Amino acid sequence: MQQKPRVRFAPSPTGPLHIGGVRTALYNYLFARQQGGSFILRIEDTDSTRFVPGAEEYIQETFDWLGLSFDESPRQGGNYGPYKQSQRKEIYKEYVHRLLEAGEAYIAFDSPEELESQRAEKANFQYDASTRMMMRNSLTLTKEETNRLIQSKAQYVVRIKIEPGQEIVVHDLIRGRVVINSSVLDDKVIYKSADELPTYHLANVVDDHLMKITHVIRGEEWLPSAPLHVWLYRSLGWEKSMPQFAHLPLLLKPEGNGKLSKRDGDRLGFPVFPLEWQDPQSGDRSSGFRESGYLPEAVINFLAFLGWNPGTEQEIFSLEELTHAFSFERCSKSGARFDLEKAKWFNHQYILNMPNNMLAEIFMSELNQRGIDAPKEMVVQVAGIVKERVHFAHELWEQSSYFFEAPVSYDEKTVRKRWKEETPAQMNELAAMLEAMDDFSADAQESSVMDWIQRNNYNTGNVMNAFRLAVVGAGKGPHMFLITELIGKDETVRRLRRAVENIA
After folding, report:
1. Is residue 262 among the annotated active site residues?
2. Number of C-beta neighbours around residue 287 at 10 A
């Protein structure tokens, strides 16, 4: 029976999670759920020098917000833990020892100064088969010298021993068969005695094997490391159980040239992190998609299309629909340009499709912050009327403030254009007529006002635009009689008379 897929997302807690990392996690999630497999969070914190407090919590909060649940994680646990590499030191030591015993790795004592000297002497110096026998390591030292140095607490590293002239094949689900000659690889460091921790490469391979990971789905930036990882699987005798690889296209700058970075977000004024992040050292804040007003469903939909397409015209997908539609065959090999306008478009679509009562709940919290106590029914109606005009929920106030507050000033350009000599008398007449109405529904108002305009041979455009100016304070807004129906007769009449008094 074929094993169900097990995939992992393995970020390092070295700062905020980049939106490209979220895209990688999403593709892992979609594949796992589609295949009935497991989606695992593993924290790769072997680089203790780059650890940033709060980063791990930030990662978990991101996925809580997005609604992408893990089957196994440091928080949730599981049968293959621990799920933090810093808690797996003794496990890695066992496999370092195994590689050394098998002659697949060796101990190197070269100091940073010695290595720098070699780089200065030899252009493009590489620690490999061509240079290793000139260096200070267990291949050039006697066993006794090696043991003496270890016992004297001399710092050392363990390097994987790459034999030259061998073909290394990476079978990639997106890029096909990738072939590398081992001669281009150096003897990478896989363990450091200084902190008794492995480097990313060894820890990654050991953990993936022990956690029975079947598919490694990660960013294109890791493709150059894939031949080394294949070599490590081979060296550890795990070649037959090696996971399948899929290297996802990079997220590119909006201009399309180069990898998307935080600097691009700062330069162009958009978030590149899922949540707001405050640097614990500098105190600097970086914006997040959540705090910028993006809905989690819209973010997921947007990210799914950065490197994948369904092969149809459909663009709006629920998470369930994405799960059914996703395939590596539809993933691009080339980078995906980050298009902020498209992100806004997705958010707008989700705002439009959101039930008015749900949108009203979000809006009411802002109204409460402004000290406005509006009936829930009215807020629901307003949200439904103006939502087609906004990309974000926080824009609702800008588009609808006149429903809740009478204008305190009037747009000068509109006044010059629409407020004529005869307008004050017409507005007073209109106010008196509206005040006398029993049925103040939008339809009844429209019928009565249009009849009144026609009977008096008034200019419809002049009257209605002045009416809008008096009620709204500017020449904007939805259908006029929807506004007046919602604010009510008394408020409408009050605003008309105030405009007559205040507009010169």
Report:
1. yes
2. 17
